[in-house]
Amino acid sequence: xxxxxxxxxxxxxxxxxxxxxxxxxxxxxxxxxxxxxxxxxxxxxxxxxxxxxxxxxxxxxxxxxxxxxxxxxxxxxxxxxxxxxxxxxxxxxxxxxxxxxxxxxxxxxxxxxxxxxxxxxxxxxxxxxxxxxx
Length: 134
Prior knowledge:
By secondary structure, this protein is of the alpha+beta class. It has one domain: Nucleoside Triphosphate Pyrophosphohydrolase (Alpha-Beta Complex), CATH 3.90.79.10. It is 16% helix and 33% strand.
């Protein structure tokens, strides 16, 4: 019996004009409650990863983004579920509203060097490692 396919999950490495990166804190009642994460979510049937990311950011943060590049995809095994993380480098879209935590407890703009001081979701650590190698 083969293992189920990983669940495709997108996330935004959203960088502002000063180089800070947006992190969002998960609600306490959800899986990985109160962990910080790069915002995003599951790719729905019929969506491209880019479409899914735009939809998730509108739902979670009430703003628009511009995807500036694709980052390296990878899988992460949470035990009960395996995800394929599909990260994108992004910027706030010109004229967009500022991000607001519609589905999160809080958001923060963090300096790249400070990312490892946050209690991040496990699947986000490889992204931090890749960003800090740049």
